[in-house]
Amino acid sequence: MSATDPIQSDISIHVGRLTFDDTTLFDGLNFALPAGKWTCLMGVSGVGKSTLLRLVAGLMPEETAMTIKASESGLEGQIAYMAQDDLLLPWLTVFENVVLGARLRGDEFSTGRALHLLEQLDLLGSAYDLPATLSGGMRQRAALARTLMEDRPVVLMDEPFSALDTITRVRLQDFAAEMLQDRTVLLVTHDPLEAFRLADRIHVMSGRPAVLFDPIEPEGKSPRDLRDPDLLAGQAELLERLTRSKMVA
């Protein structure tokens, strides 16, 4: 399987005991990412959603007790990760930031694809500007372009649309759903409407150590129509479940 081929099997994840400053964040957490589907994590701030994403991405200490079972070839080189912060390098242009992964690996890349992504994200006119000249929303769109440019079968995204205005947010939800079709996606968001529009499976995370509620599985194909009454009903159900979840001190 190449780095761009979709993962054909579900990804099973087990997190053992993980403690920060004498606080147990995880202790035997199990969940799965269905192949080719969007899985969404929700929950109050501080419950461990971003930490879980970093664990799956392999960005936590090696001694962390964690097991990931996926395809026979594993997940090495298969993951694209978009953090909450845009992490753009200030001395590189927007275009250079978008193709940074390929350049660091010494890989060939398509200039046309990079410029097409920037055009779709309304950044073509800023392709050769430095990040300091961009607004927060523009920087986040540049980070999304960099993530999509990686073209990986597994994509981890932490609040990828949080800095965007409502109209742009909806438009980019549609664009991401199109670009990541058949990819295995793990999305962290605080927006119930966004979760219900995009996800095939939604987990609410709660407590210390964190546990996952049984998933909500919205019907229909992503991205769901904003005019669909089932979308609003699902959002209300999700809000109720979030309200019932245990707050984190």
CA-based shape: globular
User: Strands of the largest sheet, in order across it?
Assistant: 7-8-9-5-10-11
Distance N terminus to C terminus? 44 Å
Low-pLDDT parts are: none
DSSP helical segment count: 8
Instruction: Give the tally of β-strands.
Output: 11
Q: Approximately what portion of the residues adopt beta-strand conformation?
A: 15-25%
* Structural class by secondary-structure content: alpha/beta
The run of helices and strands is EEEEEHEEHHHHEHEHEEH
Which percent range fits the helix content?
Answer: 25-40%
Q: Main β-sheet, in a few words?
A: 6 strands, mixed
Mean pLDDT, as a whole number? 88
Compute the CA-based radius of gyration: 18 Å
Protein model, in words:
The protein is an alpha/beta fold. 33% of the residues lie in helices and 19% in strands. It has helices at residues 49-57, 94-98, 100-105, 111-120, 136-150, 166-179, 192-198, 229-244, and strands at residues 11-15, 18-20, 23-26, 29-33, 38-42, 66-69, 79-82, 154-158, 184-188, 201-206, 211-212. Strands 7-8-9-5-10-11 form a six-stranded mixed beta sheet, with helices on both faces. A three-stranded antiparallel beta sheet has the order 4-1-6, with no helix packed on it. Strand 2 (18-20) and strand 3 (23-26) form a beta hairpin. The chain is globular.
